[in-house]
Amino acid sequence: MPTKLINLEIHKIKIRSVPKQLWLEPVKQESRNENEKHEHEKHKHKQHKKNEYNNNNDSNVPGWTCGNLNIDKLIKNSQLQSSQNDSFLEWVPYNRFSNIQYLGQGGFSTVYSALWNNHSQSLRTGPKKVALKRLHNSENICLQFLNEFETSLCCSNQQEIKEIINIYGITQDPESKDYMIVMYLAGQGNLQSYIRNNFNNLTWLKKLEILLDIARGIHSIHRSGLCHKNLHTSNLFYDDGAVSIGDLGLTGYANKVCEYSKEAAGIIQYMAPEILRGRPYTKFADIYGFAMIMSEIASGLPPFVEIPRDQKMDLIYDICDGYRPRVVKNITPKCFETLMKQCWDNDEFNRPNARQIVDSLLKWYKEVRDNNTSSDIYKQFKEADECRQQNLQTKTPLYKYDKYKSQIVETTDLGEEDCLADESGESSDEGCYYGYGADFPALLVHESEDDSASEAFEDLEEYEYINTQRTELLHSWLDKLP
Fold first, then answer.
1. CA Rg, the chain, in Å?
2. Which residues contact 394 (CB under 8 A, 6 or more apart)?
């Protein structure tokens, strides 16, 4: 159909119409009726929540008020604004949980599994196995922490966003008085544990699938106008073949506010250089954290595992100077390496956004999944998989995986002129231990001045030489780690 242009003159302003094929189709009566029906059901559901809240807003009714007006308000707002049956918070008395078992501890919280019995909402039937996240020293929880948590709920409890861990409610330990977040329990634990236990069996197709889940979750967070602020593999959860992002809006101490120009909360190894310099958090800092996750999934080792914990300040300065995890060339496709380096660029404005990352990963995933043998992308990932298969090791990894915890970091006052990195974004430091990935087998290898040893980074045939020469040294070094 030829394009038809119509000129209109209104108040002496000439307007040209869009091509006819781009005109919007009139809304059909059936669609209009469906929309009206949907809005009516949505309004009816909200009214039901409002009535339910009003009927239970008596402090004498067990199970509703927690004694903290700010938390009561948070729960009330969640219920009134909910548009789905289970996307709201509720106050859960602590005695409704049984079989509480310790799972792990971070810098600001401790996580347990528990059985939630006798659900208080008729729309939720139990019992249900859940995770309880104890917020350390949260008896006097601060309003700013609650406000940030409330803002994050717009992502956490949207049913259409599958990549974010659902949050069900809040409870309080009657002994410690700490508040606890009731949330979805991922059956296979966090992603770091999954990588540790399954790395030798992870194909690049599966790695791309995992990263695609994470990137989509980050995109959903950013599209909602939020930042995660603490992305790392212990905050990512693997369950039923998919990865979900947790701890959105739960970064830092619950009882005090960070001075953002002087302090930052998180794991140093995953923190962007601009955050370590004391700048405000942006979406591009999340992209840097994603690059560290890319490195961990590609190599099998968390970033900067070679740096002892007591060298925290040295690591901060190194990261700001452009020091990054080394890339295992032979098992890392070139296209993947390029994207990863773009994501960890020292200049935050040179990093891609989440949408661009999703597009790249999805393209690669489809080409590998469909066995597109004519594609250079497919060949890169296939060769990396073949190289991995040829060098599988069954030896137990030496790395201590419980090493990293979130903490409050005093940020430095570094300017751009203090950055000494070369254009590649990699450090030129000598005499360090570098991670070669769990396929080698999660062994830390010292770079020697001997040519044959240093070239082994590029040449897998030299690996056995390095492995046999350095194993005893590495055992000794790792045993000294705190």
1. 26
2. 200, 441
Topology classification of domain 43-184: Phosphorylase Kinase; domain 1 (3.30.200)
Q: Which CATH class is domain 189-410?
A: mainly alpha
Identify whether 127 is preceded by a cis peptide bond (ω within 30 of 0). yes
Determine the residue type at 170.
I
User: Nearest-CA neighbor of 301 among 95, 445, 459?
Assistant: 445
Q: Measured in whole angstroms, how far is the alpha carbon of residue 455 from the centre of its chain?
A: 34
Q: Does this chain's domain 43-184 share its CATH topology with 189-410?
A: no
Q: Is position 400 annotated in a ligand binding site?
A: no
Q: How far apart are CA 322 and CA 309, in angstroms?
A: 19
- Tokens 């949260």 sit on residue: 138
Per-residue pLDDT reduced to its tens digit, 294-344: 999 999 989 998 887 677 888 899 999 999 999 988 899 999 999 999 999
Domain extent listing, the chain: 43-184, 189-410
Write the pLDDT tens digit of every residue in 244-272: 998 876 666 665 555 544 567 778 899 99
Both tokens of residue 138? 């949260």
